[in-house]
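Exercise: predict the fold of this chain.
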Amino acid sequence: SYNRSVAIRYPNQTTHHSTDYTPTYRPLSKGEILKKGSKLAIVSLGHLSTLAFKLAEMLSQKGIDATIVDPIFVKPLDEELFFQLLEDHNHFVTIEEHAVNSGLGSILSFFFAKNQIKDVRLQMFGIPDKFIEHGDYQNLLKEIGLTAPQILEKLDIHEFFDRS
């Protein structure tokens, strides 16, 4: 119904959802805010939203109320959603199980540059630009630094604390 070519990525991991979930039509290029917070937005794709919620819980324990966003579509990016988020967010964190180089984080970085948005912090977490050996999914995530504690350790969150 989009009247254009599309690519659908099916995850090879089990996706958990409530038993009352009913698949619905998704308007092209419209993302979804899964949890509303302020200042820091965690942008995660698909089933990595579970990781985003774990990270948000850890940030909450430090007094940071993060927003969680699933852009659903990588291309085209929901620019309207990100302009809306920029009204009260200045720090974006992308979490993806794709290459960081040319992935969602790069697309968001290009969006900021194209629109001359300078007062924003972007941190990207995903698959590094190197060969990843075959292995157990959870072990591989840990190996490449894609667990909530590892991401939290690398987050630059000093801006959220009063220095007085």
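Check your answer against the key: The mean pLDDT is 88.
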